[in-house]
Design a protein that fits this description.
Blueprint: H1 8-18, H2 25-37, H3 48-55, H4 59-72, H5 74-78, H6 93-104
Helix pairs in contact: 1-2, 3-4
Length: 113
Amino acid sequence: MFIFLISKDEHTYLESMIHKGKIAAHKRLHSETLLKADISELGAKWLDSQISEAFGISTRTVERVRERLVQEGLESALNRPKPIRVKIRVIDGEKEAHLLALACGDAPDGRSR
């Protein structure tokens, strides 16, 4: 469990995020989650179970948002993490060269292209 104190500046920033006219839903939800989980004098000091019940999210989501705040900072906690994708090359260099030669070469006999 990650316990944190939000500074007055961060608290003001999170409050402004909540009251903005247009903001991504996940950013607003994460802002509200952090404000409710904060144990400073400005925070609501809610338990994870209270936050998850109030906002209709899992307690694990609350834990992940708090964890990202402590480990990576405020902006990382407000934004979704980028997925880590490993792309495997289907075509190696030799096959790619052959494909380019076919595409850029002359048309076969009996064909216009």
